[in-house]
Each structure stands twice: as structure tokens, then as C-alpha cells.
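Continued from yesterday's entry.
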Amino acid sequence: MTPNKLLWLCLWLLSASNALAAGISVRDDTGATVSLAQPAQRIVTLSPHLAETVFAAGAGGQIVGTVDYSNYPEAARRIPRVGGYSRFDLEAVVALKPDLIIAWEGGNAPAHLQKLRRLGLPVYLSQISRLEDIAGEIERIGVLAGTRQSADTAARTFRQRLADLQARYAGRPVVRTFYEVWHQPLKTIGGQQFISSVIRLCGGENVFGTLTATAPDVTVEAVLAANPEAIIASGMGEARPEWLDDWQARPGLLAAQRKNLFFIPPDLIQRHTPRLLDGAERLCQHLETARSRRPAGSRQ
């Protein structure tokens, strides 16, 4: 080995040693710093959407435990369960000896997360509020799991797909939209909920966008007064909910008059994962259908 090559090798080893000593550190969605001595090899995810995101970051094989309804990709179905996201089993989590827990601020009980932290377990807390945030989360998980190359590729793909949708639907005529989470009680989304950003991406306007609650209850009378041009429903599974067609009994409702009653599977639109763009594409297509059904010369 030449002296130059030997010097280069020594410098590289010194750099690698310093990097290892420094460990790994990222900030989660709450601004808290999460530090690990080395990439996580035993990960527990405390929400279905977080399991899906870890798979997207290339670290699905490192998940040793997750919660009920973690069903995508197919391999996620075979991961041991530690309960549900709102009431997970603390003892089951600890028994898995995780070196990283990825939790959901909007769904996991803060007291339970505090107990895990007091046991010395690193907890990364996720809370996505914008479409743009998903790519960054994939990248941060890739850093923590040591799968940075796969994660960075997935994040770039997500950003490119998002940019393409933004360019395609920028400037499209506005469609006033009611997003129906559930029928009884009648629930929708507020303006700060991330599905509102999907509606805006597609050139829509959330008719309840001034509400600050994440998933507020509304009345039928309020929907009729808002008179949306399109209604988007999610329901509970892959099948179109029967109650969506109940709006046909309201002939004064513009969305009913024009048969703009649309369905998107909840896993595609209500999970903060890369598949959210699949749901966004469907929502954008539905709003394009609503535009196509306008009378000639009508702006709504």
C-alpha cells in the first residue's frame, strides 16, 4: 500500500470512529432530540401508519412489535402485536427489548409514553400535519434505523410525486368540498387536519376549513347550509359506505343534484404515509369529475 493510500485509510478510519462515538441524533416532530448509540435494530411502532412508514424507509425487517390494524405492506401483518394504538400493553412493549419506539403524538396516551421514557427507552414522537412533512419523516427514520439510502430514495420519490400533483392541479377552478369521516355522529375535518391540505392540493376548498378541531362533529343542517359541490367519504374499510348515498335524499344539496358523492378507502387518505399520495390522486380525480359535471358557463 502506498503512503498516500495508507494516510487516506487512517483518516477514513478516524472519521468513522468519531462518527460512531458521536452516535445518531435527530429531532422528532415535537422538536425533541432522539439519540441512539447505533442504528436501531429492534423497533416498536405504536400506530399502523408508523409501521407502514418504517417499511417505506427500508427498515420494516427491524420492527419487532406493532399495534392492531398494522396491515400494510403484507409483511406488517405478521409482526407481533402489543395491543391497540390507544391502549397498548406496556409490559409487552418492554418485553420486546426495543432500542427504539416510534410513537404517535395524536393517538398514543402521553402517560404511557412517559413511562417508556422513564425506563430509558428512546421514543421518537411523530405528528404529521402537512403533506410535505411525510418525506422528512421517512428520512429521519432512515437515519435512526441505519437505512438512509433506501429512506432518501423513498423521500425523493414522494417529493417528486407531490410536486407533479401540485403542478397538475395548480390553478384549477375551486370545488367546495365536504369531507365526511363518519355518518353517525356526523364527523368532518378541520382546516388544520392534513386531509384539508390534500383538498387544497387538488384545487378544493374544505367547507368546514374554518373549524380548528381536528375531527369536529357537524350537523346535517350545517352541511346543507354550506351546500358543497362535492362530498368525499372514507368510512371504515375498502367498501363504499352505504350511508354516503343517504345524501341523495337531500335534492337541494348541490353535491346530490350532480351525483358528486365520492369514496376513498380510509387507508389511502387517513394515514400519514407515502400511500397518502395514492389517496390524493383519487381525490383530485373526483374533483375533476365534479368540475366536468358543471353546466356550461357555470363556475360551480
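--- second protein ---
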Amino acid sequence: MSGFHPDFGNVDRLTKQAVRPGTLRVYRLLLALGGWLVGRRVEQAVSSRGRRIWVYRPEGDGPHPALLWLHGGGLIFGNPVTEHDFARQVAAEIGAVVALPTYGFAPERPYPAGIEDAYAALEWLAAAPGVDPARIAVGGDSAGGGLAAALAILARDRGGPAVRFQMLHEPMLDEATRTRPAPDPETMRMWNPAINTWAWDGYLRNVDGPVPATASPSRLADPAGLPPAWIGVGTRDLFHAEVRDYAGRLAAAGIPVDFHEVEGAFHGFAAVRKDAPVSKDYVARMKAALAAALN
């Protein structure tokens, strides 16, 4: 279909909705099985909230910089196994300890379960052996990127572990996306307005009154004091407008922001078309920014 980046080839057969309410349980089980098979070979810790954290360490005793990286899945599914290769690369290439935390999913565990699980993982990482607590970054993909943005806000507001840098890859930031006029569904891949609305509704089902910024970072009133950010998104992503707006608001408040748009890229492009030159270039720029921020 025209309008997508030519590096991606034919995208007509890519799904417009990665998961549906009726298939959610099966999809979670498949990811859990994959996580069990791969996770047996990965160091694991447990946070104060009883959540498992996959840990990847570089060579040497440290202290090393560190990255808390949150997996995607629309706040309703996911597993650290999807970030396994990226975590190994960051540990080896940048010399950082990488922590991939698990967290609770909506609708069974709505806000604030996910962000509190992430905060407990950040506290664990800041106190972990071999980690320099002054050089910690938070980041994530999709829903994980949204949680990372919320985590930077929560750590600032609580005076918690210092976050030096935030790296937000196609982050899910704005619950208001579910009430805005939807883009043409034919331009969507992997994540569309229907599943986005269902996911946000489940995540926020216990929120009465105004939605807080630690649930939907786009509700942030004052960005002052947040760490510098690298933010990236494709122009064919459902989240494109909200991500661009968030990057602009941070920059307008004086927060250093490195914003990257990928023309014609759909949600999940860096994973679904990871061998495409444009995807490789995007991930390389992301890792270079992280290395510069932490080292």
C-alpha cells in the first residue's frame, strides 16, 4: 500500500490489530511460554512488589550505567522476552546493566498497578550491585514507552531514584486518543483505534475524575525537572500526533529533547521489519543517544 516506507516492502498482510479481547488470553499464554523458555537462561531478580525482573549485565564489576526498559503490549499483555535481544545488545555495546521488569496488565490490574510495579523495579535497579545510581535511564516500547514517561514523572514527584535520561520508542501517552476522530484504519498496522480504546478503558477503569499524568503522561501540566529525552515514532503510527505533541511540550519547557520521526513507519516497525535499513538506522540512533547520555 502506498504511503508506507519503501524499506518495509509489502505491508498489506500485516494485521491492523495485533490482539483482540477474544484472543487476549491465548496471546498472553503464548508469550508467557516463550518467556519461560528464554527466561530460564537469564538472571532474574524480584522487586519489592513481587514482580520478576530480567537482568542483563556487561563485563566487569562496575559500577555501570543502567537502563530500565519496559516491554510493550498496550498495557494489556506482553513479556520481557520480546526485548531480550535488545537488552543483550545494550549490555554488550553500551556496557550498561539492563533490567526488563514484568508488570501487571489491565483490565485485571488497572492503574496504578503497572506504574507502581515499574517504580518498584526502578528502586531495585538503583540499589542493585554494580549499578551507578547516578546514571540510570528509563525507557520502553509502545505501552512500555508510555510507562517509562510516567515513571520519569513519578520519580520526579516522589523524589525517588534519579532518572538521568528517558528513551521513549513509539510511546503510548495519551488516553484522549480513544475519543478523537480515528485515522483511516487502512493506514494502521499492529495497533488500531478499536484495540487502543479497549486497552485504555481497561487500564483506567478505576480512575474517577481527571486522569493523572502518571496514568496518561500527556496530561502532564508542568514538565519542569524531567530528564532529557529521546523520543521516536513513525508517521503512520496511531500514536504519531500525541508523541509529536509530547516531545514539543517537553522542548518548550526547556527539557532537552531529541525527536525522531520515521516517514511512512507503522506501529511496531522496528520489530516487525527489524532487518529493513530504516529500522536498523532508527535503532542505531536510539542506542547511540543512550550511550551518549549514560557514558
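The chain has one domain: 6-294. The mean pLDDT is 95. Will compare against the first tomorrow.
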